[in-house]
Specification:
Number of helices: 8
Strand order of the largest sheet: 1-2
Low-confidence stretches: 38-44
Strand content: under 5%
Helix content: 55-70%
Number of strands: 2
Largest sheet: 2 strands, antiparallel
Shape: elongated
Length: 202
């Protein structure tokens, strides 16, 4: 018998394997369909990383435009000193926005536009302003440096202190991004762990 010819035993075995594969494939498909139809609890609903990045970019875009507009317009319309003071005030307002941005039903401006919200890990209730501040202090810290420059400029070495604080705040931002990217199951960052919150789809 040549190598190319199939024996009855081989044909029977191949048929059995094909039938078993078809049965297993059918069971896997049925299980997948069942899982797809079953809604996932909100507490375990992890939104796409792109949506979170878009919401964060919108929020930062708003505060960045406000911050530089205040500083530039204050200096152009009045004087450099007024512009510096306007920059400090803008830094305070921007930091306050970032702190409390999730306090209205767990939705900042960016999250509202993208369709996300912040909830407590203990349930689905939205966070309040206190919880929002606990969650977002690592983000708002980026504006502490400009505040030091404006309101503590008369203190020796305040410029160096502001640079160090800004560098640390920037490093904290990168760490928070790393936390979200590396935690593929829930996407929790330091602020979420401190406040007991997480981001979910609205």
């Amino acid at each position: 018998m040549s190598n190319g010819e199939k024996t009855p035993e081989k044909t029977k075995g191949a048929k059995a394997v094909a039938e078993l594969g078809a049965k297993l494939g059918g069971k896997v498909k049925a299980l997948q369909d069942r899982l797809d139809k079953q809604p996932m609890p909100a507490a375990f609903n992890n939104p796409a990383l792109q949506n979170r990045a878009m919401a964060a970019l919108i929020d930062f875009f708003v505060v960045t435009v406000f911050f530089f507009a205040m500083a530039i317009l204050g200096g152009m319309i009045f004087s450099a000193r007024v512009g510096a003071m306007a920059q400090g005030i803008a830094a305070v307002v921007s930091a306050l926005y970032l702190l409390f941005k999730d306090g209205l039903e767990g939705r900042s401006l960016g999250k509202r536009l993208v369709g996300l919200k912040v909830i407590r890990t203990s349930g689905t209730s939205p966070v309040d302003f206190v919880t929002s501040a606990m969650r977002n202090w690592p983000i708002a810290a980026i504006f502490v440096g400009p505040m030091i420059n404006t309101f503590l400029g008369f203190v020796p070495f305040s410029g160096i202190l502001a640079m160090v604080v800004t560098g640390c705040a920037f490093g904290l931002q990168l760490y928070e991004i790393w936390r979200v990217v590396s935690d593929k199951e829930q996407g929790l960052r330091t602020g979420d762990v401190v406040a007991g919150t997480r981001v979910t789809e609205d």
